[in-house]
Amino acid sequence: MTERRDDVRRRRSIIGTSLAAVVAMSLSACGGGGDDAGASKTIRVTLANHVWTENIKKALPGFEKQSGLKVEVTQLGEDQLSDQYNVKLNAGSADIDVMMYRPLQEGKLFAKNKYLADLSAQVKSETWDFGDFQSGPVEATTYEGKPVGIPIITEQEVLYYRKDLLDKAGLSAPPKTLDELKAAAAKIKAAEPDVAGFVSRTGKSTAVTQFSSFLYSFGGDFVDGGGKAAVNSEAAKQAYAYYGGLIKDSGPANVSTDMGWPEAMAIFTQGKAAFYTEANSLYKNATDPAKSKISDQVGFAPFPAGPGGSRPYNIPSWALGVNDSSENTDNAWKFIEWATSKEQTLAQQKSGVPGARTSVWDDPEGTSTFPKDLAEAIAASTKDGVGHDRPLVVQVAEAREIVGQPIVDAITGKDAAASADTANAAFQKFLDDEAK
């Protein structure tokens, strides 16, 4: 999570002498091209504070021993990471070789500004198998038809639910469609006055990512096939009305319109809601007895189908890219190829970090640490998942504010269709301005 900006000093990795959980991978599998004669044997890697980072640091001694290279890690909080990228990438600095970045937050900006190297040649490595990566995450790390990043951490939206409340309501299974979800939420709220039938994010900006799966499942998207604003399409208007209406009619009493995931999750884990749609990456908040009063009653199901089918997002929350100004690109790719290998992805996933490789999800060992129903829900989500959970633009924060307004208006009982028309005009102007 975000750290304060009071210290931007580098934190170098401490390379231990023991080889903890190292992946056995031959050097022949590494290499996006021949070593440059003057290439540095030190790879400078900038990573975010994340479990993935901690895991990769523990495995680094094995990579260094096998490759003869040294990895120098700079690890920063998200705000500090953004600050460093803004300074160094804008200046064309070669101080960074490999960088961990958020494809849906700054990916388009980085690619447009040519901060990210084109990896088209590197991904052709047969032993590494780029075709094993899921299409949704690959879509989000591709710019103008060229891969510029490799997804390392994925998220999908799934349905969290209370097993005991479903049993009490006489429901034999979680809802498979959005119509069934609406009916079940209303039924439980009517029978349990102190419990909401449904909860999810309500903040104008924060709700956009979770609303996106509803939008796609109604058959809509933020833009149409021609790149024009589409948040006032008939499908989008139905999605806004549905999402807002579900929270308004079956949500918590006196629901606020500024809830992010911590607030919505708290309502669910305190036993105050029957259904909750959220990113699967947050599931341990609901299943950990230390954090959840209903940990033993939590179930997971695929995102319910709407008129357009079940179309949850399937996104890479983080990816690795090569700094286009790096003078050590061959060795930078060797690190990425190792860090995103099947073996490393499996090791990461067993520790609870969802990866983007199909083979790892198909491997029983790859889902062994996940609740069985969650693993099944994730597997279903990856089949038809959409590779973005927000508008794919440069100024993401501003776009989210625009397309999120109809969500708030629908929750508060205003005309969702009229709000969508207003938002669409503003969003189209935004797109036109950004294209200039």
TrEMBL record:
Keyword match Coiled coil: no
Segments traversing the membrane: none
Name by which UniProt lists this protein: Sugar ABC transporter substrate-binding protein
CDD domains the UniProt entry points to: PBP2_TMBP_like
Gene3D superfamilies: Periplasmic binding protein-like II
Sorted UniProt keywords: Signal
Pfam families hit by this protein: SBP_bac_1
Presence of the UniProt keyword Hydrolase in the record: no
Signal peptide coordinates: 1-31
UniProt-listed SUPFAM superfamilies: Periplasmic binding protein-like II (SSF53850)
PANTHER family xrefs: ARABINOSE-BINDING PROTEIN-RELATED, DIACETYLCHITOBIOSE BINDING PROTEIN DASA
